[in-house]
Design goal:
This protein is of the alpha/beta class. The chain has a domain of about 100 residues. It is built from 4 helices and 6 strands. The strands form 2 sheets. A 4-stranded parallel beta sheet has the order 4-3-5-6, with helices on both faces. The chain has a two-stranded antiparallel sheet with strand order 1-2. The longest helix has 19 residues.
């Protein structure tokens, strides 16, 4: 069996690679409140979402550190997403806003180093939004699948 590779550019001019059989590894940082409850809701309702995600629980997305996000890529993630409480509804008042600011900062860093900001995203869900969580990780998986494997994996 061989892997065929199709290379093209998206609207932003970022090089995208589609490979047959490539299934991206996605690291998902979640708060222990709304986001983790949404994951639990998805499971209870038997809502399917990609099995290629690795969940990491944080007390709050406000505890998201740029080092955590960058380290996820260093450890082999093809994409990373942060899932927190809806804006204005954080259990730690404005933690999700702090987390969002850090995600925006790291997206800029990813563009500067050539990894691409499209590999990182933040989503906001409340506890009963299992379908929304599932759609978010499906969207992230599809996006990263189109981008191809992380360039950092070539150095491994």
């Amino acid at each position: 069996m061989h892997n065929e590779q199709l290379t093209m550019k998206n609207e932003q001019g970022v090089l995208m690679v589609e490979q047959d059989g490539f299934e991206p590894e996605i690291t998902v940082f979640t708060c222990i409140y709304c986001a983790y409850m949404a994951i639990d809701t998805a499971g209870a309702l038997r809502i399917r979402y990609p099995a290629n995600i690795k969940l990491i629980k944080l007390p709050c997305t406000g505890k998201t550190d740029a080092r955590y996000l960058l380290e996820a890529f260093e450890q082999g993630a093809d994409g990373v997403c942060v899932v927190g409480c809806p804006i204005g509804n954080c259990h730690h008042v404005r933690g999700n806003e702090r987390g969002h600011a850090r995600v925006k900062y790291v997206k800029e860093l990813l563009d500067e180093v050539g990894l691409g900001s499209e590999r990182l995203e933040m989503y906001f869900v409340s506890g009963g939004m299992g379908e929304t969580f599932a759609n978010a990780v499906r969207e992230m998986t599809d996006r990263v699948r189109a981008l191809g494997p992380s360039p950092l994996k070539n150095g491994r």
